[in-house]
Design goal:
binds fe (ii) ion, mainly alpha, 233 residues
Amino acid sequence: MTKATEDLFTPIHKGIRSMIYDLASRLQAADFTDRAASESLLADLQHEFSNAVSATCVLCLLHLHAGHEELQVFPSMQPIDPTLIRALVDDHQEISRRLVALTSLGDQLAASGAPDRRAELGARINREANDLFAFYLVHMNKEEATLVPAMQEHFTDDEMRAMQGRIIASLPPDRLASFLRWMLPSLTTAELVRLLTGVKQGPSPQALGFVNGIGTAHVDPTRWAAVRERVGF
Ligand SMILES: [Fe+2]
Ligand SMILES: [Fe+2]
């Protein structure tokens, strides 16, 4: 049997790193005393447990990603390396605690009118978000260094694609679009070609058009044209 080469983690992690870099960069430059200007930032700091979350909020996507791993990937790896899976689930619980704390600070900021108080809360949000992001970045590196080789050793490419298919099928289209909007421009051309070839050969005839729409809108046009030519669509 040839060794499996599928990697369920690195591509989506690249997208998540781009979300984190972008949000961190906007956070540290934000003027939180300006209510209107900080509104879109606050929307990105909401997460799953809050009311009225949007499909694009960054913390929601970070939370959702950890949930996908716990539901669709970790159970298969649990009997193979229970100690590793325990450590990764502990990380997820720590991430969850920090997401809740950050969302609560965002709620306090949204409810606060006094400029001094808003500036103080904004500075605290910036620090705590950076702590969360640092933790999340280390966590993703850990998953790539441990889970990717372990899964390639214990599962076939078809088995890993089936896990990935279940994750994609569980996502509402607007959430899937939010992940792809960050992931596609974060991949190398070779990774895009591999991904799009898989989509083209996959079971859903609409999927290629869906991904092409997002790629056209978010990937550098020259790069996207090269991918289209190499994949043939
Ligand atoms: Fe994770
Ligand atoms: Fe992950």
